[in-house]
Amino acid sequence: MVDSSMKRTAKWLCVAAFAAPFAAPRPVHAQIPELGLKGGANLAVLGGKDAGAMERRTGFAFGAFLTVPNGSGRSVQAEALLTQKGARYGGASDSFLYLEAPVLYRISPVLPPAVPVKPVLYAGPTAGLLLRARMGDADAKHLYRSTDFGIALGGAVEFTRITLDARYQFGLTSIVKTIGQITPDYKHRVFSVFLGYKLF
Fold first, then answer.
1. CATH of domain 2-198
2. pTM of the full predicted structure?
């Protein structure tokens, strides 16, 4: 009962965090939003008390982002990513494909327009929709929850149009469905590196 309540609380906190930046009023001097594309690589593994010893699995991640300035040195970046996660263990491999939507709260120093490089720190919730799950070559989607919630922490370096960023994402809820009265504890742990390009 307590575990179920904690999961519901985590999900509602993620929903509130996703909605907050779009409901909050923005200053009249806010800059124009930026739209771009990004792609990169994941180093993924499964954590949690039932995960045991596992090795990292490499995967891809790519999609689009929209950055909305919200005051001096602050902004919110919403992303839509196709991202591959999983883990290796004992010569076998589990792989998961998600459609994921991070919402990242960003802070950066206010620099003169002539400075071409801007450092950024960010954090925010992520929500994913499971598209595919495989254990080796076998389809295993029926064994896993259709949604996944997590938190991402990272930083970026932005040039005029090019962006480089790295983040660590850790899951808040187990990805495995409840079996009887037992919910196995397996959560995603993912380190990602991205290269992005601002379209405008």
1. 2.40.160.20
2. 0.83
